[in-house]
Amino acid sequence: MISKPIEKALQQQIALEAYSSSVYLSMACWADVEGFEGTAAFFYKQSDEERMHMLKLVHFINDNDGHAQIAKQDAPPRNWKDIHSLFREVLEQEQKVTQSIHELVNLSLKEKDHASHNFLQWYVNEQMEEEKQIKTILNKLKILGNDGSGLYLLDRELGERAAMADPEGEA
Ligand code: FEO
Hints:
Blueprint: H1 4-34, H2 37-63, H3 83-110, H4 114-144, H5 148-165
The protein binds MU-OXO-diiron.
């Protein structure tokens, strides 16, 4: 059984993961229409992953005598100035999620809720990996600047990453 303060904080995390899923879907749409085919595939996949993060929270709450609530959420932006500003926003979103996960871990310690503490470690690791991945892409973008051929190759690389993560091409 989870405590009420933990349940409330997990509900907020559901909303944050749902927003990540929706903003990455919107980024996929932008990339699709701007001709960044690989980047679009990357973000369709990221959007699916964020939905999976949300669902893990939903099941954890429901399996531990809580009742997961699905809240109304703000619509995500539809347009970005360029690929650089898009990835900067991804990093900001992921840093916000990381901070929220760390606050949840602190709360689980305060509440002496070992089950939640254990459950949250998966998110701590996932956030480290996601931030690292986005920082790597941003570093490459910094080197490339607005070099069209370089951006074309990076887009292709992102498409290959999405295909590797989803070999059946369902993204
Ligand atoms: Fe589930 Fe990347 O936050």
